[in-house]
Amino acid sequence: VQLVESGGGLVQAGGSLKLSCSASGFTFDDYPISWFRQAPGQEREAVACISAIDGTPYYGDSAAGRFTISSDNAKNTVYLQMNSLKPEDTAVYYCAAEEFGCLYMKYVGWGQGTQVTVSQ
């Protein structure tokens, strides 16, 4: 399982970013793909997930209403569109392949992460 994130950066509060996760080394629809984040000194937090079976999206509490997860199966890529960003969204964002299903946070593998920093 190989996953590579991109698209992070520095943005002002209220702004938007779109993260990308490119997957390889496995059949793309074998596993749901999740985004989770981790800030310094904090636990991992589930952000969003997209079902491999039917494309249904699932969101963690912090993401609901502001973030949108989508996938392009032809490109083996999952996206996370993040709008109305807040300083508390600052974290390293990882994409991961879920072993048991969306938001179980049991991962077969994950990428190196991409830093998202939201300034006041």
Structural account:
With 120 residues, the protein is mainly β. The chain is built from no helices and 11 strands. The strands form 2 sheets. Strands 2, 4, 5, 6, 9, 10 and 11 form a 7-stranded mixed beta sheet that branches. It has a 4-stranded antiparallel beta sheet with strand order 1-3-8-7, with no helix packed on it. β7 and β8 form a beta hairpin. The N and C termini lie far apart (37 Å). The model has no long low-confidence stretch (mean pLDDT 95).
Q: What layout of secondary structure does this protein have?
A:
Blueprint: E1 2-6, E2 9-12, E3 17-24, E4 33-38, E5 45-50, E6 57-59, E7 67-72, E8 77-82, E9 91-98, E10 107-110, E11 114-119
Features:
120 residues, 11 strands
Quick recap of the structure?
The protein is mainly beta.
The secondary-structure class comes to mainly beta
How do the helices and strands follow one another from N- to C-terminus?
Answer: EEEEEEEEEEE
Strand share of the residues? Answer: over 45%
Tally of individual helices = 0
Largest sheet composition: 7 strands, mixed
Report low-confidence residues grouped into runs of 5 or more.
none
Q: Mean pLDDT score, rounded?
A: 95
N-to-C span = 37 Å
Based on CA atoms alone, the radius of gyration comes out at 13 Å
Shape: globular
The percent range for helix content is under 10%
Care to count the β-strands?
11
